[in-house]
Write a structure and sequence with these properties.
globular, binds 6-hydroxymethylpterin-diphosphate, eight-stranded parallel sheet, 264 residues, alpha/beta
């Protein structure tokens, strides 16, 4: 899954695509590099980010989705707002990536339509909200709470008629988690991947990568090689979808691992 942020303030690539044409060109580049899914987002959810209005979010993502829709790419919308998801469904998307994990009642009211259209649904875990989530994240048992929440939301979706095969579960690295929480969740991926749902992992360029590299002050784009290593480790742990900025580098690392690793 290639990241396409149409925002002025995303932590690693904010402002990179300042026009619809630039966004379409970037999506085409991600697709050519081998991304199976393009994840379009109009709100930065980096720690400390202020929320954007639904109007502004729609203004950012809908024209881009309209241009991409006829090009035959699998489109994901990274949004936690039903008021943005609904018009995006009218344009035509394949996956709803909700960093709020389908907790909002407005998103739940959309479920009959999401079911009828067979949309893929990515349920992500976040403690708190982006503006304050890194203030003092706290868990008694981070794997139990995060993976338990994801299983609970999957059950809620399935009770509403969602096909389990349409559900992706994502522990939400960096969303209300300390470095140690992220590390523990990452180490818990292989056990989570034993469950019936596919797992999505989004660690690309994040602060946890910089910390694990031993270079906490590195610029986000300097974290691509280490992010590709993390993607390989996530895939080896059973993750099905990897949300990344550097698609070409990640794919090369995955191919290398597949070519050289001893079969298990
Ligand atoms: N991370 C970000 C945004 N959306 N969605 C899922 N499912 N999983 C993630 O880990 C995830 C996500 C944050 O990264 P990015 O989009 O690069 O930055 P920003 O939020 O600043 O736009």
């Amino acid at each position: 899954m290639g990241v396409l942020n149409v925002t002025p303030d995303s932590f690693s690539d904010g402002g990179l695509v300042a026009s619809v044409d630039a966004a379409v060109a970037r999506a085409a580049e991600l697709h050519r590099a081998g991304a199976d899914i393009i994840d379009v987002g109009g709100e930065s959810t980096r720690p400390g980010a202020a929320p954007v209005s639904p109007d502004e979010e729609r203004r950012r993502v809908l024209p881009v989705l309209r241009e991409l829709q006829p090009l035959g790419m699998v489109l994901s919308l990274d949004s936690r707002r039903a008021e943005v998801v609904e018009p995006a469904l009218d344009v035509g998307i394949d996956l709803v990536n909700d960093v709020d994990g389908f907790r909002s009642s407005a998103m739940q009211r959309l479920l009959p339509r999401l079911v009828a259209e067979g949309q893929g649904l990515c349920v992500m875990h976040m403690q708190g909200s982006p503006s304050t989530m890194q203030a003092s994240p706290h868990y008694a048992d981070v794997c139990g709470e995060v993976y338990g929440f994801l299983r609970g939301q999957a059950e809620m979706l399935e009770a509403a008629g969602v096909d389990p095969q349409s559900v992706l579960l994502d522990p939400g690295f960096g969303f209300g988690k300390t470095y140690t929480h992220n590390q523990t969740l990452f180490r818990g991926l292989s056990s989570a991947a034993q469950g019936p749902h596919a797992i999505l992992v989004g660690v690309s360029r994040k602060r946890m990568i910089a910390e694990a590299m031993g270079q906490p002050d590195s610029a986000p784009a300097q974290r691509d090689a280490a992010s590709a290593v993390a993607a390989v480790l996530a895939a080896q742990s059973g993750a099905s979808v990897l949300r990344v900025h550097d698609v070409a580098g990640t794919l090369a690392a995955l191919r290398l691992a597949a070519a050289l690793a001893a079969p298990v």
